[in-house]
């Protein structure tokens, strides 16, 4: 298992049999960092789950191909078309000529604003659809929280690994591979903050109806939960995270940072810049 001593961003680490997370993190002052992960399932028909952010394209591709030969990849599961999930999609499609893109009709339409997705290489997966990936069955599932209407989570019934996409999103003081490295307060506060940040509409939902969606998702009985914006969850932290989800409809929305906050941050930044040194005469 990857430890804090061996954990490095953009270095894949194993989370289950033949299953690897490619970790990245985005500094997000003043709340710490947000994980920006993707996943690779090796298996007999390898699967890329989301394609990383374009800001680290070359490093991400190098990390992915350190786990699997791109010519062996058979499936690319795109959870949704946001840039942090689909940012390297065209590069992955180009380097994985034998892969089929698992996506949705709406995602293809939304991505058409920037590029033309090769429709002949696509297969649509709606909520509840399954894919036979050789040595495992993969299930697409709409998660309880999402920031994009096309979002689908992915459950691997062979390893009981759930890719929860943006559900369980959280900020962390510093990048870590697993939530077990966080204190109980950091875990709780991160879950409650991240959920309201990525899905502010949750405050508008009926708590009972939302709770039934959470329960349905929980009935996948995942033993390992990974996601784009969370360290890996295991053991008792999984039901705890679901309990935090159920609290969200009854919580006030997160209050966004304002221009006054930005002005304050800029003032602090400017005050910390050393004064300009006088230039030598004659320059």
From TrEMBL:
<dbReference type="Pfam" id="PF00753">
    <property type="entry name" value="Lactamase_B"/>
</dbReference>
<dbReference type="InterPro" id="IPR036866">
    <property type="entry name" value="RibonucZ/Hydroxyglut_hydro"/>
</dbReference>
<feature type="domain" description="Metallo-beta-lactamase">
    <location>
        <begin position="35"/>
        <end position="206"/>
    </location>
</feature>
<dbReference type="InterPro" id="IPR001279">
    <property type="entry name" value="Metallo-B-lactamas"/>
</dbReference>
<protein>
    <submittedName>
        <fullName>MBL fold metallo-hydrolase</fullName>
    </submittedName>
</protein>
